[in-house]
Amino acid sequence: MRKETSTNALNEKMMIDSCGMSSSLAVIGGRWKPAILCRLSYGTMRYGELKKDIIGISERMLVAQLRELEKDQIITRVVFPEVPPRVEYRLTDLGRTMKPMLDAMSDWGNMYRKHINQTQDLSATVLQDK
Amino acid sequence: MRKETSTNALNEKMMIDSCGMSSSLAVIGGRWKPAILCRLSYGTMRYGELKKDIIGISERMLVAQLRELEKDQIITRVVFPEVPPRVEYRLTDLGRTMKPMLDAMSDWGNMYRKHINQTQDLSATVLQDK
DNA sequence: CCGTATCCGATGAGATACTG
DNA sequence: CAGTATCTCATCGGATACGG
Hints:
The structure is a homodimer of 130-residue chains. By secondary structure, chain A is mainly alpha-helical. Helix content of chain A is 55%, strand content 11%. The first copy, chain A, has helices at residues 11-17, 21-28, 33-40, 47-53, 59-71, 93-96, 99-123, and strands spanning 45-46, 75-80, 86-91. In chain A, a hairpin with a 5-residue loop joins β2 (75-80) and β3 (86-91). The longest helix of chain A has 25 residues, at 99-123. At the A-B interface, α1, α2, α3 and α7 of A face α1, α2, α3 and α7 of B. Chain B binds a DNA duplex (20 and 20 nucleotides) through residues 3, 7, 30-32, 46-48, 51, 56-64, 79, 83-87.
């Protein structure tokens, strides 16, 4: 970034050069984490609510992604010793610091989709800016 | 955004709920695209420069990622009809609109890594904010 | 209600050798 | 110089059945 001295042959260097983006992607990447984070950013949710709300996710994947986010200290899992059992998930303080990043990604993604749809509609099969 | 559409027609709803994040991740996600985008955000680069600079990437993956970014209209590939051949890659106007998002991701990722390293150093085996 | 366990196909990604 | 072509293995993600 500042200078590209490629004398260091470590992948660690590559990650530093990638400006922390790789670290962010390691936490929020994957198919389902955006959906989970987007929902929890609005507040606490129960397991069943997440499962019902995120259309198409399997229980296996939901649990796996929640466990990863918990391990990464982005969310917390609160178990209520009741019958029937109840488990709530919420963002940690660290998780809430993601908001500017999530907003930026959401904004650009929406803009990008509109742009792609427009160019597709206008030029149909022809890509004239290539 | 690209490849999920075939299996489940309801995924469209999920992606809208995910606030465009999925669209962004479809474009910038993956192991090598952060490294490529980060470098091209500083200006034009030749194929060989990218290959030399991004430690550990195989030619196969470099070409594949560049082709995807080109298809997504994020970068352009400029071929100079010279001997020896020369090919330059640069961001498109659309690609340059990613900067706020890339910066936000970079900033959060760097902050996150510092945070994780600190809590590891300080609390060792104990996680007290759980 | 809130998960695990198991199986399996699709995709991502690395190594190596070759080419216009 | 700037790529292709194959082969291979690891990981991601889906379906289904079962467990506390």
